[in-house]
Amino acid sequence: MQVGYARTSTADQVAGFEAQKRDLIQAGCEEVFSEQVSSVAQRAELENVLKFVRRKDTLVVTKLDRLARSTQHLLKIVDELEAKGVTLRILDFGGAEVDTKSPSGKLMLTMFAAMAQFEREMMLERQREGIAKAKAAGKYRGRAPLPVEKVERARSLKAQGVKVADIATQLGLGRSTLYRVLKTI
User: Fold this and answer.
1) Do residue 109 and residue 159 come from a single domain?
2) β-bridge pairing 87-93 and 58-61
């Protein structure tokens, strides 16, 4: 059985999310697990799909970055799949398709994962350098602080027993921002 896994980092990525699910179904997946969550967050559907797959199944993803956040994480997943007798298939692997049934597929997967992680780390390094340069030139100030009135209103509503989700909606704030503000009480 072919089992698909689709993921986007945010709920805003609707088109990409739908495209992944469509591609997985077209690839012959009988079951598709999907979620919209950051790769560094707890991914319940990834855990569910890893529990669901059985011997001789194939886990199918559209791209490598939809599955793992690092080479180490990918290899851990591949080891877990191999221990269960499950193979991994990546539909778009830089224009090619990779299947871990073969030794060459495993080699390609490991090498490309290492290269992808390297490129991500280089991109983050360039980003940090650019931010440092912009700060030195006085062009980077970071996020604007919340108006004091909003902070006080949030604290007041929370003290009245209003739920965080309702406060966030009412004040037009993200929940994570609101939790950070309320934590400073």
Assistant:
1) no
2) parallel
Position 26 scores a pLDDT of 94
**Partners of 7 in the beta sheet?**
35
Question: What CATH number is given to the structural domain containing 90?
Answer: 3.40.50.1390
Q: Is 104 a catalytic residue?
A: no
pLDDT attached to residue 66: 87
Q: Which position among 9, 34, 39, 70 bears the catalytic label?
A: 9
Position with higher pLDDT, 44 vs 9: 44
Say if residue 8 is in the same domain as residue 76: yes
Same domain, 110 and 158: no
List all residues 6 or more positions away from 106 whose beta carbon is below 8 Å from its beta carbon. 78, 100
In tens, the pLDDT along 138-157 reads 888 777 888 888 888 988 99
Task: Give the domain extent around 152.
Answer: 148-183
Which residue stretches of 2-147 are H helix?
14-26, 44-52, 71-83, 103-136
Q: Are residues 88 and 162 in the same domain?
A: no
> Are 17 and 28 spatial neighbours (Cβ–Cβ below 8 Å)?
no
pLDDT of 73 higher than 90 = no
**Torsions phi, psi of 8, nearest 5?**
-125, 160
